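Design review, sub-item: ligand-bound model
Attendees: FS, YL, KQ
YL presented the inputs for the adenosine monophosphate complex:
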Amino acid sequence: MKVLVAVKRVVDYNVKVRVKSDGTGVDIANVKMSMNPFDEIAVEEAVRLKEKGLVTEIVAVSCGVSPCQETLRTAMAIGADRGILVETDAELQPLAVAKILKALVDKEQPGLVILGKQAIDDDCNQTGQMLAALADLPQATFASKVEVVDGRAVVTREVDGGLETVSVSLPAIITTDLRLNEPRYVTLPNIMKAKKKPLEVIKPDALGVNVASRIKTLKVAEPAKRGAGIKVADVATLVAKLKNEAKVI
Ligand code: AMP
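KQ shared the predicted structure:
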């Protein structure tokens, strides 16, 4: 079985992002970029399935600017067999990425597609669900455990009320939650090996996908600064303040 894994290049989770002074977006010049953490979990899961003998090939896909090739090399250092960069300078929204992935699903015919549950830059949490709808495939989102048995994936999902287990027929779309696994560290020998693995670069046009933006960002602003907290003498004072000053009770 072939697995397709979507990996997005995002601002590293340790970076404190700054809004550009003209309010048009977030400043990403000279900022460390990394693979979206949920996508690292997706690659790790695919590699574990391969190690169990359930998967024969892992194809990592990234959509975006040319440096996304680094993200694909990281995926290949974790264990993906090859990479596909769908290269564009356009600002991609989840629907455009889902359309690209749908075209690649048609082309590559994977038995499983694994994505992160959300990208930590836009926090959209939409691409996997949109892909499932476009490709008309079953979806199991927010996976915290995946087992592949008899042509089906049994997926434990983290939902508001606790854990839910669903069984989906393959091919299917799975999105990863934080507790699915802990991605391995990439070793130097594997980084070196990854440099030799095949990486194909194609344009969205070649897949017949129009990536034109459908959303216009009007303004980006920093959240309001929080004021310092205060200590109150007793519960009565706290209740009085909540009632009279904060007016929340
Ligand atoms: P989002 O819907 O934007 O929160 O993203 C959810 C998941 O879709 C991510 O964790 C990735 O697996 C995948 N994804 C989103 N954008 C891209 C992209 N530009 N390239 C590759 N994968 C992406």
